[in-house]
């Protein structure tokens, strides 16, 4: 008598439910993390600070993540992604709580401390833990699509924050405190989502283990433990990906962090135009990133798409560097519109390409560490570069913002050099990144079989 075969939830529609929870998590986090960029003017008027202080907030957020994602990745591989997710989510709650208190007391130092705690939890949760658990549920299937959808909803969070937070500020009588309470509510929803994710993932693992044979369980337990020394075994293309990631994301995110003020001071745009142009790349990304992710799963060619996306980012930087007479309002708006359209296409293309490359360059038991190292290197750039930009913008003027664009253009060129090297390295080392996503067979375990053996096809 044969018991009914059970398929892992990772191979059923349950994985899409899990992806939906991941997306909700990303939205809640990003509404809170992005508030300094969308409320820059409100922060300046509330605390009597300058744009350089806004950039320093992002440096404070990124500072602990120079090292934390690396160790966070090792912690994830050591204690498991579920425990790590809950621990680091707790830092998000503490950080946003401090921001609420800082807003109530008009104490900018508490806002800084809150950003530090948001940094302690945010990057490990967003980049490392969620990426590791998503890889677990989609490896060998629609991984680029899953990462594309996940990244799309990060940007949905940014769009929601950009549109809702200024309205909350005005609706409650120019109250920055109301904005921070609004963010705190979303962080609590995020924490609840993480509990549901962990419960679902634990039940899935338990269900799978119940179907495993004694030999399979023994092999699972005998997997080599993760160790810091595993880093030396990472391939060279992994570090090229790291350089590409830190330079590309820094150039794009720092531009976006200062975009609203730049649109106001350099291009003389209205508040409505500023908000529209700021959110435009995120709208484009949210619309087409999942489609691009699905497409890349089918055809591969990831290094080629990295080169294309890098050139798009460089093109938008060149457009922003162009001198234009902003006394003619429509001319300025058209120029910025074109640059932001290109930025949106860059981000929609780059994000679903870069992150699924990482599991292809590391061992299966070191994926958390791999995502952690990438996160650490990325945040080293997002700590140092905003400080440099803060110095450039010490006195805000149209000229200082143009110098900022020149600096970001240099960073973009470094990203492009790395992308080209990734392409040639992959050609001479097995074309692993060029290949389409390998479709794994469905995981099936039969607890009891008839005496006649059944051969399982393994692709």
Automatic annotation (TrEMBL):
GO terms for molecular function: transmembrane transporter activity. GO terms for cellular component: lysosomal membrane. It comes from the Eukaryota. Keywords: Lysosome, Membrane, Transmembrane, Transmembrane helix, Transport. InterPro entries: MFS, MFS_trans_sf, MFSD1. SUPFAM superfamilies: MFS general substrate transporter. Gene3D superfamilies: MFS general substrate transporter like domains. The keyword Transport applies. Homodimer. Interacts with lysosomal protein GLMP (via lumenal domain); the interaction starts while both proteins are still in the endoplasmic reticulum and is required for stabilization of MFSD1 in lysosomes but has no direct effect on its targeting to lysosomes or transporter activity. Lysosomal dipeptide uniporter that selectively exports lysine, arginine or histidine-containing dipeptides with a net positive charge from the lysosome lumen into the cytosol. Could play a role in a specific type of protein O-glycosylation indirectly regulating macrophages migration and tissue invasion. Also essential for liver homeostasis. This is Lysosomal dipeptide transporter MFSD1. It comes from Paramecium tetraurelia.
